[in-house]
Specification:
CATH topology of the largest domain: Rossmann fold
Bound molecules: uridine-diphosphate-N-acetylglucosamine
Strand content: 5-15%
CATH superfamily of the largest domain: Glycogen Phosphorylase B
Radius of gyration: 21 Å
Number of strands: 14
Shape: globular
Distance between the termini: 13 Å
CATH architecture of the largest domain: 3-Layer(aba) Sandwich
Number of helices: 17
Number of domains: 2
Helix content: 40-55%
Structural class: alpha/beta
Length: about 400
């Protein structure tokens, strides 16, 4: 019996673990029958660190993705990077000592990823990193540090593209540890796309006509480099509001961005919209207005996976500083403007629908208008982004 702890902590982790939970359960079920030589039964435990804890950032994703309740919830919450990482490590070490897993599997590049990988490695428990080898080559990004360290600590490095294999080899990782398996986030997208199309979010936002014409944009913004400096944030909203004069720009606001907007007194630059029937709203109640009153960016509460996927799939354009959204738009064939100076996912630019525009307002505006008028060339779907990545990962682990 091989005991695997699967770790998730923050929003972008949940869509990555969902197909792994499913594949582990499936293989375990199959394993009860006749086994090949060296094959082992798998037992998995799901640990949620609690890095993201709001219902809109965590619970709705568990619900939408059909994830089981975590077996263990660490409840670490927010803090500085050192505080958060340290709290996760202290709590996770206890779990590892008690559960004695044979493997700790971490995904992505958030603080929970590196914290749990470090704990496991020090306890001599093998680590598997799903989404290994991505590099932005920009160490001002906290995620880049998390990626480099997690990869150095890992025994199984599962990559989404060949670029990642090359990055790892350049950093001295032995080739036999690296497995090119594809993209688990795309497994989740394929599994949920049909269900997402049934979401009522388009109606709730009053976007029926614009959606039929594919004439709205979807925006996400939460990177420290974009939202922690009032001058930068104000300039970005300047450009976005010019786009909003042409088409509605829907903006599910991340809690960290919302608190920066409040702190910098930039409320006037966006229009807060409550969504009828949405369970949670953490938007400032005195600022919620009717969505039609001004042609500004329309801020809505963070959305669940299915609502967001629905909006993304029917958008004319997505503007984002997220990592995963660059990949999801590539699969959906929706143009994506990445409001960062670099990407750790270059395949979305060379093969997909992604354009790196940075945070210069003129560039954002010009590129958005150009794409709205001219469209973009057809994209290619990267190899192994086929809905079977989790299956490949579990097979490698099981046969190890
Ligand atoms: C984290 C990840 C980032 C990922 C993002 C997606 C790291 C280093 N960063 O950034 O890679 O793209 O998640 O969302 O791990 N907050 C809440 N409720 C929550 C969670 C956060 O209010 O449920 C607020 C808190 O004020 C917190 C702030 O958001 O201090 C930032 O949260 P944190 O988890 O530290 O980083 P993110 O910016 O969410």
């Amino acid at each position: 019996m091989m005991k695997i702890i699967l770790v998730a902590g923050a929003r972008p982790n949940f869509m990555k673990i969902a197909p792994l939970v499913e594949a582990l359960a499936w293989f375990n079920q199959q394993g009860k029958g006749v086994k090949r030589k060296n094959e082992r039964n798998l037992q998995s435990l799901l640990v949620h660190t609690g890095q993201h804890y709001d219902e809109g950032m965590s619970e709705f994703f568990f619900r939408d993705l059909g994830l089981p309740e975590p077996d263990i919830y660490l409840g670490v919450g927010s803090g500085t990077h050192a505080e958060q990482t340290a709290r996760i490590m202290m709590a996770f070490e206890k779990v590892c000592l008690e559960e004695r897993p044979d493997l700790v599997m971490v995904v992505g590049d958030v603080n929970s990823t590196v914290a749990c990988a470090l704990v496991a490695a020090k306890l001599l428990i093998p680590v598997a990193h799903v989404e290994a080898g991505l590099r932005s080559f920009d160490r001002t990004m906290p995620e880049e540090i998390n990626r480099i360290l997690t990869d150095q600590l890992s025994d199984f490095l599962f990559t989404t593209c060949k670029d990642a294999n090359r990055n790892l080899i350049r950093e001295g990782i032995p080739e036999e540890k690296i497995h090119f398996v594809g993209n688990v986030m795309i497994d989740t997208l394929f599994r949920h796309l049909e269900m997402a199309k049934k979401s009522k979010i388009i109606e709730k936002l009053g976007l029926m006509e614009t959606a039929n014409l594919k004439k709205y944009a979807l925006l996400t913004l939460h990177r420290p480099s974009n939202v922690d400096d009032p001058v930068v944030l104000k300039k970005i909203f300047g450009a976005l509001n010019e786009i909003a004069l042409r088409i509605p720009v829907i903006f599910p606001v991340h809690p960290r961005t919302l608190s920066r907007i409040q702190e910098f007194r930039l409320n006037r630059l966006i229009n807060y919209v409550d969504i009828n029937g949405t369970e949670a709203t953490h938007l400032p109640p005195n600022l919620i207005r009717n969505k039609n009153v001004s042609r500004r960016v329309l801020a809505v509460p963070p959305l669940g996976y299915l609502d967001f996927l629905c909006l993304m799939s029917r958008a004319a354009l997505v503007l984002t500083d997220s990592g995963g959204i660059q990949e999801e738009t590539t699969i959906l064939g929706v143009p994506c403007l990445t409001l960062r100076n670099n990407t750790e996912r270059p395949i979305t630019v060379t093969q997909g629908t992604n354009f790196i525009v940075g945070n210069d307002p003129r560039k954002i505006k010009d590129m958005a208008f150009f794409i709205l008028e001219n469209g973009i060339p057809p994209r290619r779907i990267p190899r192994y982004w086929d809905g079977k990545a989790a299956e490949r990962i579990v097979k490698v682990v099981k046969d190890s």
